[in-house]
From TrEMBL:
Protein name: ARF guanine-nucleotide exchange factor GNL2
Membrane topology: Peripheral membrane protein
Any Pfam family hit: Sec7-like_HUS
GO cellular component, one term: membrane
GO molecular-function terms, A-Z: guanyl-nucleotide exchange factor activity
Superkingdom of origin organism: Eukaryota
Subcellular location: Cytoplasm, Cytosol; Membrane
Keyword match Plastid: no
SMART domains, sorted: Sec7
Presence of keyword Cell membrane: no
Organism expressing this protein natively: Forsythia ovata
Family matches, as PANTHER family: ARF GUANINE-NUCLEOTIDE EXCHANGE FACTOR GNL2, GUANYL-NUCLEOTIDE EXCHANGE FACTOR
Residue ranges of domain SEC7 in the record: 477-662
Length: 1094
C-alpha cells in the first residue's frame, strides 16, 4: 500500500478506536448519567461485552490487510452485542447504534467483502432486537431515532443486496413498531418514523424491476425458494405488500356513552395508502411479471380499496383514486374486472346523491384524472361500453360530468368548473385523435346495423386486422344497446322482451339456450322475480337455459353458503317447491363439479344440504317462527346425507353460524332498481370470473370508434355546453365553452350531422339575432355591449365555414341569423372582401355585387377542406383581440363600425362562394332553407321594403350557390324546383315579392348557364321554374317586364342553338309575348321576334 492508502487505513482505525472508547466511557459511567461516582463496568453489564470491545481495540492498529478485505463481523460484533444486551444503559445503546451508523455510512465494506452477508444480516438482527433498559422517555426516544437511522443506512448500504427476505421484512416490521409506539410520544419521533418507513418502502420496491421471476412464484405454494445467495427479493416484496394491505384493516376502539365500538383507524389507513401508492409507483409494470404480487393486487388490495373507498374521508379517497390510477397505468391488462368494480362501487356511487360535497368533488376529480390519460376513454369504451356483460363506464362518466357541470345557479361552483374541465378534456381528446391531417381512415356508416346473428357474449381478440376488429366491436355495441331495450321490454312483458331478442338477431334460429342464459345473467336491472319464474319452469328448453345460466357462475374456492348466496342474488327464488327443486338441482351439480375440498361425495349431498340451509334460514330469520332451530338440531338433521356418511361437524357448524349471523336473502327486492353492494360473495365471484375472461384490451383511437363513443354522450354534452355558455359571465369559462364547441364540431363532421345541427341551433340563440320580440335598436345594443353575442356569432359562422360539408338542418338557424344581420345593415359591401383574386378561373369574376349590395368573394382554400380546423382557434383569438367597445369609442370608432369589424371576421360570403365543395345533402338543405326563408317561413317583416330586401337577398344567395355549382346544376336544381312547389302550398304564402325576385334571379341564372355553354336539359330546368313563378301571380310580369324582355331577346339573339326543345321555345316565346305588350317594352319584343324570323 502507498502512503496515502496507509494513512486512510490508519484513519479508519482511529475512527473505530474512538467509537470503542465512546461506548466504554458511557458504560463505565453507569446507568445514572448524572452520577459523579465511577462505577465498575462489570457491576452492571456482561463481562463478555466489555472483553469483546477491548479485544477489538487491541486489534485495531495491527490489521493484517486493508479494512475492506476484513470480515465486517470482526469490528461490528462488539457494537452489536452492546445493542442487544439487556443490562446496558440506554445511553450506551444509543452510542453503539451511532457507531454502527458511522461504519455503514463510511462504506468500509461492500457486497464483495468476505463475510459481508453474515455481517449485514447480523446487524439487522441486532438492531431490530434492540432491548432497552427502562429509563426516561427522552433517552428511549433518542435510541428509537438511532434505530431508525441505522435501519435506513442498512437498506441504503451496498451490501443490502445480501439481506435475506426475512431480514428485509424484519426491518420494515421494526420500523412500523416504532411508528406505533411513537403515537404516544413526541411528534418529531413519529414524523421521523413515518418518513423512515416511507424511505424503506421506496428502497425495497425500487429494486423490484431488477428482480428475476422465480419458478416458485407460479405455484400456489408459500414455500420459499432455496437460493439464499441472491439476497432479498420478491418474497419480501410480497410479504411487505401483504402487510401494507393488512394495515388498511387496523381498527380503532372507541368508547361512547359506555358503548365500545370499533372503527377503521383513519390515520393508519392513510399512512398505509401512501406507502402502497409509493410501492406501485416505483415497481411499475414489473409487478405484472410476479404472479403472487399481481394476485395480491387483484384480490386483497382492490377488495380493500373498493370496500374502504365507498366510505372513506376525502383525503383517503383521493389517495385511493391515485393508487387505482397508477394501477390502471401499469397493470390494466390484468385488472379489467377490478377497474369496473372500482368505478361502479366507489366513484359512481359517491357522485350519486347522498354523499357529502367534499367527497363528490374528490370523486369527480378522480374521474377527470382518468380521462386525462391519453387512451383511457377509448379503452374503457372498447372494454366496457362495447361488451354486453359490462357496465357502460365511458357513457356514465360523460353523463355524470354533464350532470355536475350543468349550471343550477348564477355562480359557478368548484365542482361545476371541475366537471366542465373534464368534459373539455374528453372533447379535445376525441377530436385530436380522430380529426387528423391526411388520415385515410374510413368513417363508416352511423349507426351500425346488425346484419346477422352473432353470439353477443363472445369476444374477439385484437389481432393484426384492426379494421375487422373495429367492425366487430361496433356491432357488439349495437347488440348491447338492443339488449338493454329488450330488458326494458322483458320487465313489462317477458314474452315481448324475448321476442325482441329474436327480432334484433340476438338469438339464433333455432334458439340457443346460452343466449337466454347470458341475457338473464348480465343484463342490468332485469326483474329478478321474472327471471326466477322462467328458470324454474319445467319446459325442456327452459331447463337447458337454467343449466347454461348456472354454468355462468364460478364457485371454485367458495364454501357452500357463500356459493348459494352468490347464486340466489342473481334472481328471486320462486315459491313453488317444484321450481325450487329444479333450480337447486342445477346449482348442486355445478357446485359439486367445482368443489375444491372434496367434502361432498355426491351432488345429492349438496342438494340435500342446500335445502336444509334454506329451511334453516327461514327458521332462524322468520319472526313468525317462535322456536328457533339449534345448532345441534341442524347437525342432527343432516346426518348420513353424504353417501351414507356424516359431513364434518366443523363444516356444518360453520354453515350454521354463517346463516344465523347473516341471512340468505330469498325474497328481498326483486325489482329492476334493487341496490347492489360489493359483498364478499360478489367479490369471490369477480375473482373467479377474472380467470376466464379476456384481459383488458389495449388500443388506440380509431375514427369510427371515436365518433361512436362521442355519439353516446352527444345529447347531454351539447345541452350542458349551451347551458353553461348561457348562464356564465366568466370570460375563462366562455372561452372553454367555445373551445369545446369547436372540438364537438370537429367530431360531428364525421357522420354526426344531427349533433352538429343541434350545436348550431343552440349557439345561434346566444347571438341575440333570433329574438323575435327585440327591436333593431335593442338587438344592436345587446350585440355591441356584450361579449357573449359576439363570441357566439363568430363561433357559429366559423363552424359554418369550416364544417359546412356536414351541416344539414342547421342551415336554417344560420340563414335566420344572416337575414337578421342584413336587416341590421351589418352586411355592406365592405363586410366580405375577396381574398385572392388570382385564384379565380377566367369564367368567374373576382367578385359579384348583387342587387342587395352583398359582395360574394372568391374561393378561399382555407375554408374548403375537411381538415381546416387547425386554424379555427387562431382566427377566433384574432377576433377576441379586437378592441372593446369602450376602447373603440375612445379611439373615435363608432359602435356600428366596431360591429362591422366583427361581422367581417365571420367571412360569411365564403360559405356561398365555396359551396362547390358541399356534399349534395348539405347543398340541398342550404338551398331549401334559403327558398323557404325567401317565402317568409319563420320570418317576421316590419315593413314591405324590409320584406322585399330580404327576399331579394335570399335569391342573391341562391344565385351565388348556382354560380358556384354549375357543374352539377342538373343534380340539385330539380330538388330546388320541388322546394318551389312546396312553397306554393304554404297557408299564408304571398307571391309578391317572392315570385318577382325569383323570376329575375332565375333568368340571370339562365343567362349565365347559357354563357358558360350549359345547354338543355339544364337550361330548361330553370325555364320550368320561371313558368311556375309567373303562374303564381301573372301580374308580377308587369313589374319586371323590361328586364325579362331584354333577357329573352338576348337569349334568342345570342343563344338560339341552345334552345332545342319545343318546351324551351314555347316557354321563352310566351314570356316574350306577355312582357312585350307594354308600350315601353314593345319595340324590344318586336326586335326579338324579328330575329327569329331572320
Amino acid at each position: 500500500m502507498d502512503q496515502t492508502q496507509v494513512a486512510k487505513e490508519l484513519g479508519l482505525s482511529c475512527m473505530l478506536n474512538t467509537e470503542v472508547g465512546a461506548v466504554l466511557a458511557v458504560i463505565r459511567r453507569g446507568p445514572e448519567s448524572s452520577s459523579q461516582f465511577y462505577h465498575h463496568p462489570e457491576e452492571h453489564c456482561d463481562v463478555s461485552i466489555l472483553q469483546s470491545l477491548k479485544s477489538l481495540r487491541a486489534f485495531l492498529f495491527n490489521p493484517q490487510q486493508e479494512w475492506r478485505r476484513i470480515d465486517p463481523s470482526l469490528y461490528l460484533s462488539p457494537f452489536l452485542d452492546v445493542i442487544q444486551s439487556d443490562d446496558i444503559p440506554a445511553t450506551a445503546t444509543a452510542v453503539a447504534l451511532q457507531s454502527v451508523l458511522k461504519v455503514l455510512r463510511l462504506g468500509i465494506f461492500d457486497e464483495r467483502t468476505v463475510g459481508a452477508k453474515d455481517a449485514i444480516n447480523s446487524a439487522v438482527t441486532a438492531v431490530t432486537g434492540c432491548r432497552l433498559e427502562r429509563t426516561n422517555l427522552v433517552s428511549e426516544e433518542a435510541v428509537m431515532m438511532r434505530i431508525l437511522q441505522v435501519l435506513t443506512a442498512i437498506m441504503r448500504h451496498r451490501a443490502s443486496v445480501l439481506l435475506t427476505d426475512h431480514a428485509a421484512c424484519t426491518i420494515v416490521n421494526t420500523c412500523f413498531q416504532v411508528v406505533q409506539q411513537s403515537a404516544s410520544r413526541g411528534d418529531l419521533l413519529q414524523r421521523s418514523a413515518r418518513y423512515t418507513m416511507h424511505e424503506l418502502i421506496q428502497i425495497i420496491y425500487t429494486r423490484l424491476p431488477d428482480i428475476e421471476v422465480k419458478d416458485w412464484e407460479n405455484s400456489d405454494s408459500d414455500t420459499e425458494d432455496n437460493n439464499l445467495d441472491s439476497g432479498y427479493g420478491i418474497r419480501s416484496a410480497v410479504d411487505i405488500f401483504h402487510f401494507l394491505c393488512s394495515l388498511l384493516n387496523v381498527v380503532e376502539v372507541m368508547e361512547t356513552e359506555g358503548l365500545i365500538s370499533q372503527t377503521a383507524d383513519e390515520n393508519v389507513q392513510l399512512f398505509a395508502l401512501v406507502l402502497i401508492n409509493s410501492s406501485i409507483e416505483l415497481s411499475g409494470d414489473s409487478i405484472g411479471k410476479h404472479p403472487k404480487l399481481l394476485r395480491m393486487i387483484q384480490d386483497d388490495l382492490f377488495h380493500h380499496l373498493i370496500h374502504y373507498g365507498a366510505c372513506s374521508n376525502p383525503l383517503a379517497l383521493s389517495m385511493i383514486c391515485s393508487i387505482v390510477l397508477n394501477l390502471y397505468h401499469f397493470l390494466r391488462k390484468s385488472i379489467r374486472l377490478q377497474l369496473e368494480a372500482f368505478f361502479s362501487f366507489v366513484l359512481f356511487r359517491i357522485v350519486s346523491p347522498g354523499s357529502s360535497l367534499q367527497l363528490q368533488e374528490v370523486a369527480v376529480e378522480g374521474l377527470i384524472n382518468f380521462c386525462r390519460q391519453p387512451t383511457f376513454i377509448i379503452e374503457v369504451y372498447v372494454n366496457y361500453d362495447c361488451d354486453p356483460t359490462f357496465r357502460n363506464v365511458f357513457e356514465e362518466t360523460g353523463k355524470l360530468l354533464c350532470k355536475y357541470a350543468f349550471p343550477t345557479s348564477g355562480l359557478s361552483t368548484s365542482i361545476q368548473i371541475q366537471a366542465l374541465e373534464g368534459l373539455v378534456v374528453i372533447f379535445h381528446n376525441i377530436a385530436d385523435h380522430i380529426d387528423k391531417e391526411n388520415d385515410p381512415s374510413p368513417t363508416g356508416p352511423y349507426p351500425v346495423e346488425i346484419s346477422g346473428y352473432r353470439p353477443f357474449w363472445e369476444e374477439k381478440s385484437k389481432d393484426d386486422d384492426v379494421e375487422t376488429w373495429v367492425d366487430y366491436v361496433r356491432v357488439r355495441k349495437v347488440q348491447k344497446r338492443k339488449i338493454l331495450i329488450a330488458g326494458n321490454h322483458f320487465n313489462r312483458d317477458d314474452k315481448k322482451g324475448l321476442e325482441y331478442l329474436k327480432i334484433s338477431q340476438l338469438i339464433a334460429d333455432p334458439p340457443d339456450p346460452k343466449a337466454y342464459a347470458v341475457f338473464f345473467r348480465y343484463t342490468p336491472r332485469l326483474d329478478k322475480t321474472m327471471i326466477g319464474d322462467y328458470l324454474g319452469d319445467p319446459d325442456e328448453f327452459r331447463i337447458k337455459v337454467l343449466k347454461e345460466f348456472t354454468d355462468t357462475f364460478e364457485f371454485a374456492g367458495m364454501i357452500l353458503d357463500t356459493a348459494l348466496r352468490t347464486y340466489l342474488e342473481a334472481f328471486r327464488l320462486p315459491g313453488e317447491s317444484q321450481k325450487i327443486q329444479r333450480i337447486l338441482e342445477a346449482f348442486s351439480e355445478r357446485f359439486y363439479d367445482q368443489q375444491s375440498s372434496e367434502i361432498f361425495v355426491t351432488k345429492d349431498a349438496v342438494f340435500v344440504l342446500c335445502y336444509s340451509l334454506i329451511m334453516l334460514n327461514t327458521d332462524l330469520h322468520n319472526p313468525q317462527v317462535k322456536k328457533k332451530m339449534t345448532e345441534e338440531e341442524f347437525i342432527r338433521n343432516n346426518r348420513e346425507i353424504n353417501g351414507g356418511n356424516d359431513l364434518p361437524r366443523e363444516y356444518l357448524s360453520e354453515l350454521f353460524h354463517s346463516i344465523s349471523t347473516n341471512a340468505i336473502v330469498l325474497h328481498g327486492q326483486s325489482g329492476a332498481g334493487a341496490p347492489v353492494e360489493m359483498n364478499p360473495n360478489r367479490w369471490i365471484q369477480l375473482i373467479n370470473r377474472g380467470k376466464f375472461i379476456q384481459p383488458f384490451i389495449l388500443c388506440d383511437f380509431n375514427r369510427r370508434l371515436g365518433r361512436d363513443m362521442f355519439a353516446a354522450i352527444a345529447g347531454p354534452s351539447v345541452a350542458t355546453l349551451a347551458a353553461i355558455f348561457e348562464h356564465s359571465d366568466e370570460e375563462e369559462i366562455l372561452h372553454e365553452c367555445i373551445e369545446a364547441l369547436f372540438s364537438i364540431a370537429r367530431i360531428a363532421q364525421y357522420g354526426l350531422e344531427d349533433t352538429l345541427d343541434e350545436l348550431l341551433a343552440s349557439f345561434c340563440k346566444f347571438t341575440t339575432l333570433l329574438n323575435p320580440y327585440a327591436s333593431a335598436e335593442e338587438t344592436l345594443y345587446a350585440f355591441g355591449n356584450d361579449m357573449k353575442p359576439k363570441m357566439a356569432t363568430m363561433a357559429v359562422f366559423t363552424i359554418a365555414n369550416t364544417f359546412k360539408d356536414s351541416i344539414r338542418g342547421g342551415w336554417r338557424t344560420i340563414i335566420d341569423c344572416l337575414l337578421k344581420l342584413k336587416r341590421l345593415k351589418l352586411l355592406p359591401q365592405s363586410v366580405i372582401e375577396p381574398d385572392n383574386a388570382s385564384d379565380l378561373g377566367s369564367d368567374f369574376p373576382a367578385h359579384e355585387r348583387s342587387e342587395s349590395g352583398v359582395v360574394f368573394p372568391s374561393h378561399d382554400p382555407k375554408f374548403g377542406g375537411r381538415h381546416s380546423s387547425s386554424g379555427i382557434m387562431g382566427r377566433f383569438l384574432n377576433f377576441l383581440s379586437l378592441e372593446s367597445v369602450e376602447d373603440a369609442l375612445n379611439n373615435g370608432v363608432s359602435e356600428f363600425e366596431q360591429n362591422l369589424k366583427i361581422i367581417q371576421q365571420c367571412r360569411i360570403g365564403s360559405i356561398f362562394s365555396t359551396s362547390a365543395s358541399l356534399p349534395d345533402d348539405s347543398l340541398l338543405n342550404l338551398g331549401r332553407c334559403l327558398i323557404f326563408a325567401a317565402a317568409g317561413k319563420g320570418q317576421k317583416f316590419s315593413t314591405p321594403i324590409e320584406e322585399e330586401e330580404t327576399v331579394g337577398f335570399c335569391w342573391d344567395l341562391i344565385c351565388a350557390i348556382a354560380s358556384a355549382n354549375t357543374h352539377r346544376f342538373s343534380t340539385f336544381w330539380p330538388h330546388y324546383h320541388d322546394y318551389l312547389l312546396e312553397v306554393t302550398q304554404f297557408p299564408l304564402f304571398s307571391p309578391i315579392p317572392f315570385a318577382e325576385k325569383a323570376i329575375v334571379a332565375q333568368m340571370k341564372m339562365f343567362l349565365k348557364l347559357l354563357a358558360r355553354g350549359q345547354s338543355d336539359p339544364v337550361g330548361e330546368l330553370l325555364l320550368k321554374s320561371i313558368v311556375l313563378m309567373w303562374k303564381m301571380e301573372k301580374e308580377i310580369l308587369d313589374t319586371c317586364c323590361e328586364f325579362l324582355v331584354q333577357s329573352a331577346s338576348e337569349i334568342i339573339v345570342k343563344y338560339p342553338d341552345k334552345l332545342q326543345t319545343q318546351l324551351g321555345w314555347k316557354s321563352l316565346l310566351h314570356l316574350l309575348s306577355v312582357t312585350g305588350r307594354h308600350p315601353e317594352t314593345y319595340n324590344k319584343g318586336v326586335r326579338g321576334h324579328n330575329h327569329i324570323d331572320v
